[in-house]
Structure to design on (777 residues):
């Protein structure tokens, strides 16, 4: 179990006179829960997701993002007591990923020349290495230096604890079957030439491989037809049910929430979470739009 | 020796490229270039009179021709002082002409190649490796089954003796004459070593033929000559790798490559070069392609202070084709000026050029290309694609694709893209657990993938590792 805690988060675009986008966001997501974060365009939903993952384009001006780790977060690891709570704002994006944060992108990058298999195995091993270094302070590089290279370029450097090619293929096959993905995917280049639906499915696959504690999925439902929406939703539910991942589902529409049923729904307006409730809040939005929330909030103020 | 061995095990990849051997030379020509030096080299090699004459003619050409200075954006060659170069060094070992068993090589030379991973390539049952150390080929191996078919792969010096008629016909006569450019003339005067490959009619050599060149001494030049003659209907893939450790004085590498692609023949010439950052790499490489023949140039240019290299194909016969894939990487203080030249001199000829360059830390890459379509080369087509990837705002990349089209019924396409490594791409990979360096490296290795996929696995791994080292800035 892990808990992501966002407290009074203020942020702006990281350039001279950058626009203030977040004005005090509060949110708490625990492993195993599904949260929907809804709101009109420009309310700050995507910005929130990017800041959680550590995007350099934004500057946090106030508030904090904490990640609390429970002992059983990483299976067989005993996490030392003194490193159970992390301030994500002090960490690099890859360090956040290593501690179990995952961001599913609305528009994932296309990387030519890098096969899916190569990418995913590299990412998984990088994550495992970094996690050990963060939690136990082991300096991987020093270890590598000690081990040295074999003289043969074919054999590469000696490194135990890596997920080997065969082991990884097996893992990948399992996960892809789970998501009904075609094996042909694996020899394709990362997102290059993927359809919108394939890209979204690929984001979910990556979360299934990397097994994060908390996955923030940024409008993963946009541009999907109904069949693909169901596939992607099935994958998201599996993340929660099989891996206990906590999901922060960012969306405009209630549609995906018919398939991925949220435990909590939050509404963002003008850089703040202004209202939270259960799944019924999403249906209210569907019926009445955002205006009534706006009215309610500003009347109260 | 044993402490040396222990050390060897512990060194990392960087050291594999950087280290240099204390090598006692048996014979080194005097610094600088004059007729006397040429005579000494030729005599030491026991060459026939006609070769000495060609050398001396080339020397006269060299002395007459001016240094290239007026090309737009060309690398600065003012430091290249031929009087400071030792043009010829023969290693002090009894291996002249090459040994054919790896075990017969002296330990120190074996060590050098061991560090470079060459024996591994050999162990992996490749068809042949010729290794040049300084100016001489010290190791050469060709599988017997090719020899039985009449395929020849040997040291160029040896070929002058043993295949005099072929060499006399083709050596710097029709393809790269010394008058071509100043460095071709220099090469013609003081060339030494290199590879000779002869493939008889209708013979397919289905494993790559490989050579490895290494420049180990300070302030020397390396001027190996490669001559490939592929007769009608034959097929061969030749691969060369080159490297030089770092020294304080400058080095000059001025190789010459001549390829003759017969009718319906197919030659692939692949090279991965990694020169030390004080090397001037000024080469002339050219192929003449007969009717329906196919020439492929695959090259990765790493290292060097300045490189000027434009492999050329002359499509002489109807239906001849050419394919160029080049990649250049320039870091701090480096200027890699490379590209391709294709002359469409017959109808229905076809060429494709794909050039990729990477620059970082103020490095400079140029693509300099020339596609010439002669009057009468009807229904020919060419496609040129240049992609440049830059790491920062200090690095530069220029594209100079000259096209001379003298025929109207042709198909010409040119496309160029220049991009900085995208922050969003890097962030995407970082969010998946890769650190900043690894993310950039992954993007670069994807960028050069079209090259690596064309190479045998050992070279692909080596190229990727070289890029990795360049990106870390740890390669000297």
């Amino acid at each position: 179990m892990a808990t992501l805690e966002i407290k009074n988060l203020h942020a702006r675009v990281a350039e001279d006179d950058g626009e203030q986008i977040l004005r005090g966001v509060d949110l708490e997501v625990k492993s195993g829960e599904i949260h929907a974060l809804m709101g009109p365009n420009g309310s700050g939903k995507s910005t929130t997701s990017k800041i959680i993952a550590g995007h350099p384009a934004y500057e946090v001006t106030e508030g904090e993002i904490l990640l609390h780790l429970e002992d059983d977060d990483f299976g067989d690891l005993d996490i030392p007591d003194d490193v159970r709570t992390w301030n994500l704002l002090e960490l690099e994006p890859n360090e956040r990923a290593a501690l179990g944060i995952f961001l599913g992108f609305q528009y994932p990058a296309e990387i030519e020349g890098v096969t899916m298999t190569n990418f995913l195995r590299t990412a998984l091993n990088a994550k495992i290495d970094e996690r050990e270094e963060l939690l136990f302070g082991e300096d991987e590089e020093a270890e590598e230096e000690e081990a040295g290279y074999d003289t043969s370029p074919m054999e590469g450097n000696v490194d135990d604890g890596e997920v080997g090619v065969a082991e990884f293929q097996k893992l990948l096959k399992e996960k892809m079957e789970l998501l009904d993905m075609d094996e042909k995917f694996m020899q394709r280049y990362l997102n290059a030439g993927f359809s919108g639906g394939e890209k979204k499915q690929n984001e979910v696959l990556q979360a299934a491989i990397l097994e994060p504690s908390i996955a923030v999925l940024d409008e993963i439902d946009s541009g999907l037809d109904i069949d693909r929406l169901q596939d992607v939703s099935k994958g998201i539910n599996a993340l929660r049910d099989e891996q206990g991942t906590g999901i922060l589902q960012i969306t405009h529409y209630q549609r995906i929430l018919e398939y991925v049923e949220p435990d909590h729904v939050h509404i963002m307006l003008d850089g703040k979470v202004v209202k939270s409730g259960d799944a019924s809040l999403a249906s209210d939005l569907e019926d009445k739009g955002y205006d009534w929330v706006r009215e309610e909030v500003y009347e109260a103020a | 020796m044993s402490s040396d061995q222990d050390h060897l095990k512990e060194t990392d990849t960087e050291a594999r490229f950087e280290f240099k051997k204390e090598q006692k030379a048996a014979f080194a020509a005097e610094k600088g270039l004059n007729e006397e030096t040429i005579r000494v080299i030729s005599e030491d090699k026991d060459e026939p009179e006609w070769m000495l004459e060609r050398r001396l003619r080339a020397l006269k050409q060299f002395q007459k021709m001016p240094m290239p200075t007026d090309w737009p954006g060309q690398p600065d060659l003012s430091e290249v002082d031929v009087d400071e170069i030792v043009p010829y060094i023969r290693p002090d070992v009894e291996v002249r002409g090459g040994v054919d068993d790896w075990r017969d090589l002296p330990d120190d030379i074996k060590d050098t190649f061991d560090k470079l991973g060459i024996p591994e390539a050999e162990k992996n049952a490749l068809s042949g490796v010729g290794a040049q150390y300084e100016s001489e080929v010290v190791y050469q191996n060709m599988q017997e089954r090719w020899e039985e078919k009449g395929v020849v792969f040997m040291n160029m010096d040896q070929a002058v003796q043993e295949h005099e008629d072929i060499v006399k016909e083709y050596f710097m006569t029709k393809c790269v004459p010394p008058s071509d450019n100043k460095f071709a003339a220099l090469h013609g005067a003081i060339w030494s070593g290199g590879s000779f490959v002869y493939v008889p009619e209708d013979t397919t050599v289905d494993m790559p033929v490989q050579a490895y060149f290494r420049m180990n001494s300070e302030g020397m030049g390396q001027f190996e000559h490669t001559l490939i003659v592929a007769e009608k209907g034959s097929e061969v893939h030749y691969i060369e790798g080159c490297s030089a450790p770092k020294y304080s004085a400058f080095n000059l590498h001025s190789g010459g490559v001549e390829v003759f692609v017969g009718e319906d023949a197919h030659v692939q010439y692949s090279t991965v070069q990694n020169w030390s950052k004080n090397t001037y790499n000024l080469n002339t490489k050219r192929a003449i392609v007969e009717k329906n023949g196919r020439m492929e140039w695959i090259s990765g240019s790493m290292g060097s202070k300045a490189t000027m290299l434009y492999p050329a194909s002359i499509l002489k016969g109807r239906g001849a084709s050419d394919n160029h894939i080049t990649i250049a990487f320039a870091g701090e203080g480096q200027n890699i000026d490379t590209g391709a030249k294709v002359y469409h001199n017959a109808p229905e000829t076809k060429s494709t050029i794909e050039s990729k360059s990477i620059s970082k830390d103020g490095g400079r890459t140029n693509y300099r290309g020339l596609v010439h379509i002669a009057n009468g080369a009807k229904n020919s087509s060419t496609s040129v694609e240049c992609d440049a990837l830059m790491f920062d705002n200090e690095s530069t990349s220029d594209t100079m694709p000259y096209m001379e089209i003298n025929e109207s019924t042709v198909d010409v396409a040119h496309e160029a893209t220049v991009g900085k490594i995208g922050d969003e791409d890097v962030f995407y990979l970082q969010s998946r657990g890769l650190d900043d360096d690894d993310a950039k490296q992954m993007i670069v290795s994807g960028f050069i993938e079209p090259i690596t996929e064309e190479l045998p696995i050992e070279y692909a791994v080596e190229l990727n590792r070289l890029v990795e080292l360049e990106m870390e800035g740890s390669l000297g």
Observations:
- The radius of gyration of chain A is 20 Å.
- Confidence is low (pLDDT under 50) at residues 143-159 of chain A.
- Chain A touches chain B at residues 53-57, 92-94, 96-98, 102-103, 105, 108-109, 111-114, 119, 122-124, 126-127, 130, 145, 148-149, 151-154, 189-190, 206, 210 (CB under 8 Å).
